[in-house]
Amino acid sequence: MALTILHRKLGRDLWRIRAQAFAIAAVVAMGVMVQVMMAGLTDTLTITRDAYFERHRFAQIFEPLTRAPNSLMEKVNAIPGVLTTEGRLSGYGRIDADGGEPVQARILSLPGPAGLNGILMTAGRMPVPGRSDEVILLDTFAAARGIALGDTFGVTVEGRHQHLRVVGFARSPEFLFMPAPGEFFPTDGRFSVIWMERKAAAAVLDLDGAFNEVLVLTTRERPRKAVLADLDRLMAPYGGGAGYVQDQQTSARFIEEELKGLRQSRLFLPPIFLAVAAFLLNVTITRIVQAERREIGLMKAFGHSGAEIAGHYLELALLIALAGAVLGSGLGVMAGRAITGLYMEFYKFPYLVFSMRPGPFAGGLAFSLLAAALGAAIALRTVFRLTPAEAMRPPAPPDFTHGRIGFLALLTRPLDQPGRMILRQITRQPFRSLGTIAGVAAGLALNMAMLMIYAGFDHTMAVTFGFADRSDATVSFIHPVSRDVTHEIAHLPGVLEAEPQRMVPVLFRNGPITHRGELTGLPDPATLNRALDTSLNPIPLPANGVVLSRGLANLLALHPGDLITAEVTEGRKRHLTLPVVAVSDTLLGAPAYMRLDALTRAIGEADRITSVALRTAGQPSAELLHALRERPKVAGVSVKADSYAAFRKIADEGAGQMRFVFGAIAFVLSFGIVYNAARNAFAERVHELASLRVLGFTRAEVTLVLAGEIAVLVAIALPLGIWLGWWLANLIAVAFSNELYRVSVSFDLPSIAKAVLVVVAAMLASILMLRRAQDRLNMVAALKARD
Amino acid sequence: MQPAFRTEALSKTYGEGPAAVHALREVTLEIPRGEVVVLLGPSGSGKSTFLNIIGGLDRPSSGKAWFGDQCLTEMSERALTQYRRSHVGFVFQFYNLMPSLTARENVELVTEISNDPMDAGEALRLVGLEGRLDHFPAQMSGGEQQRVAIARAIAKRPAVLFCDEPTGALDSTTGRRVLQVLNDVNRELGTTVLIVTHAAATAAMAHRVLHFTDGQLRETILNETRADPAEIEW
Fold first, then answer.
1. Which family does it belong to (chain B) (predicted)?
2. Does residue B146 sit in the same domain as residue B170?
3. B180 plus B196 within the same structural domain
4. CA nearest B53 in A: which residue?
């Protein structure tokens, strides 16, 4: 297409309004960026997860049991719907690292011929058959602990101590997200997996000729739940019966939670930006068409059709949107890659390449152009209506007769004339003013909501690590031990207080809703680990019944007074029916609290505990850790300071960066809207401003008239934005809460102040830029121009 | 009596080098107080540039200008603003009213920042608009809008009223009415009135006519007898 004169005009027009065009393009860019980033991340995680799961034949059904003979596997294979299956050996041991706290390790037999739950070797080799001391270690743990190939380390399994040699490093889909027992977030150096040859594992775990976990891949012919039910029945006599499907496996579940969050943000964020961009383009094109009435009249007089001229202005809008879409795509890829790096770190994928399918880019582009076209179309109706003769006459002064009637008249009465000008200007075009207010409020709300969510992080840490959990360390045992162990531990060096706890894995059930979790037994009154109400006061544990965390109560749709079923999945596998007595305001995890004596009685294991919480003088000493290492039944020690640090790292790295990104997005949105509003007002009222200067108003007084209008709009937008932000924060909190982490929001004043500050900064920046334009204004030329 | 304005070799050049435009070339003159002065000349003759400089809207490239004993050409930006605020009123071809303010409010815009203003209603009565006080510009004819602009300009009781093509956008009947108002202002308030126009007939109502050509003052004519604006033919 040859460049016509109209195209040349287009180029010059764009150059003339470059600052405004850039501000609008930036808003479009934010929308496209979020779209490209979120879509890319969703794709990246989905594709990588699916490929990783498939390549390593990640099981679809898991059935843990106590012990079953290898011959039973034939019957498992015969269950309808079973594609392939494997009986593996699984247990726990304790790695006794020098000096540090004992670390719990999962011990697994290496994948068999079926290759289920295969591992990905990242270094070294497989153990040589017959060499029972050769093992493969989880690579992230080895890296965190500085363990090299060929190193030996001590492990205690079932009370027996032995030395193992590392010959290879590996990772597996099963351990993408694996917090150490008793902790909430994964830390590389705090949890490990040891893969051993089957024979070696059988010897260590005392499972010769037997297996204690079934892994299954199913065919499509039967629902997995049906296969699981058959398997549960088959395995019940062998200590099984509490199997679960892949969706409930820890790693798989948390990746899915992450994906859910991404999909939700992708749905609600980009439309906000595109709506704002459409509005801005509408106002700007309307203003330009108004200012170029004469040119439009001339072009029509010369024989251009209304469609040709409208097309010219439409091209202007589309070009701005196109620039925004291209910029946004680039930013989206950059942001997506950065976050992919964080995901790599957090979830232990072997590879994670940011996906760039054409779909999201094309979608972002199409929606930006559509938004621009919609915004411009409404403004361009004028072009068609304008007759050449009419266009050549100066426009009649805009009608302000509305200012003399009703409420507005009352409102303006006490004002001076500049004040009246401001108020009448705002009310003359209510939709435009409302659009500006809504846009600014949206920017504020978005930023404020995200800041509140992040402030909620800090609140969660303060409540969890300051009030709910007042221990300094928790000692966990491989198997339940007598409560008397508490007293022995209480007498170890540096221990000020020791409190017994009992964790019982159960399947919670409320009608059709089920959830795999734990019952937590605590002494009454508990002092180190407590259930708290919303005012952070401890909730006394009832002699009979259960106190649910809010996360769990919401998940199971239960309220105080309801009955809950808890099917114990270990030991005697009793089914308990318990009244829900209260709901606690627990923020991390989703525990269900019971009185220790009531719980152990109910499951038929009187006074047997699984962990002891400790309060120590200062950090747990090396002497204390050594003393705990000497006790063979100790599975691991979790030091609260480490948990805290892991949580802090997540808050600072991932969330910290996102906090910054959202601040920047909010600034672009607020600035784009405020600057455009100010710029349009300035262009429309150059004459008035020049007149004021001629009449003897000072520069500052004139600036005030223009700034006043913006300031009033922003002042109305602020409370609206705060209200909207509070609503949005609560919405996000509900949407993003899961059983691991309940997002808590409070009406956090610093968050509000920061968000307001961003909007005010955007406003001041706009006013400063306008002031510069005003200073360059040639009074005489402005006054002599006809319109 | 000291003249209202005095200029000495006042020049204004736009641009530089071969592209330079000499809008005003060394104009030296005096304008006495209390007169109606008409500045005549074709487009580009320098009459508007002259008006803008002594009105405090523009600065000369060289030369000096005095308002009474105040040297305008040495004034700071702030002082010029104060000068426009206190001593002079402007009327332009395209009225330049605030569309968001009524007739009365447009006048009050000025009286609010003046030291000894007349009542806004009084100013509008002087221009014959006592019945249109609460009308917005959109509800008024061009002539009415221009009279509001004049009322706004005189409400601060300025020493001088500058009018740049005040009848340029008006039909002859309305134009005559506006000139009549300017004449009344001069007679009743003693305001010095400077009118820039290229309608030569307007000269008949002046005490003094200044002819500009090519940026220079060519001729000054003093009218022995002044015509009533109502009699001026267009």
1. Belongs to the ABC transporter superfamily.
2. no
3. yes
4. A780
Same domain, B68 and B172: yes
CA proximity to A693, closest of B112, B82, B108: B82
Q: Do A401 and B152 touch (CB under 8 A)?
A: no
Q: In the prediction, which pLDDT does A1 show?
A: 46
Set of chain B residues whose Cβ sits within 8 Å of the Cβ of A700:
none
Judge if B70 and B166 occupy the same domain: yes
pLDDT in tens, A597-646: 999 998 988 889 999 999 998 888 888 888 888 887 888 888 888 878 87
Question: Cβ(B104)–Cβ(B85) under 8 Å?
Answer: no
Query: B111 in contact with A at a CB cutoff of 8 Å?
Result: no
Query: pLDDT of A118-127, one tens digit each?
Result: 999 999 999 9
Q: What are the tens digits of pLDDT across the range A34-63?
A: 889 888 989 999 999 999 999 999 999 999
User: Which of B85, B90, B100 is the best mutation test for A, with the most CBs of A within 10 A?
Assistant: B100
pLDDT of B161 reads: 92
Tell me the residue range of the domain where B77 lies: 5-87+158-228
* B144 has a chain A CB within 8 A of its CB: no
Domain count of chain B? 2
CA-based nearest distance B82→chain A, Å = 6
CATH code (residue B10): 3.40.50.300
Tell whether omega for the bond before A525 is within 30 degrees of 0, i.e. cis: yes
Which one of B81, B102, B108 has the shortest CB-CB distance to A698?
A: B81
* Nearest alpha-carbon partner for A325 in A21, A11, A40, A26: A26
Name the H helices within A292-416. 293-301, 306-346, 358-385, 388-392, 406-412
Q: Which two tokens stand for residue A330?
A: 């680039």
User: What is the band of B219 on the pLDDT scale with cuts at 50, 70, 90?
Assistant: very high
B154 in contact with A, Cβ within 8 Å: no
Structure confidence at residue A548 as a pLDDT band (50, 70, 90): very high
pTM: 0.78
Same domain, B15 and B76: yes
Count Cβ neighbours within 10 Å for each residue of A597-607 and write b for 16 or more, e otherwise.
bbbbebbebee
Question: Rounded to a whole number, what is the distance in Å from the CA of A712 to chain B's nearest CA?
Answer: 17
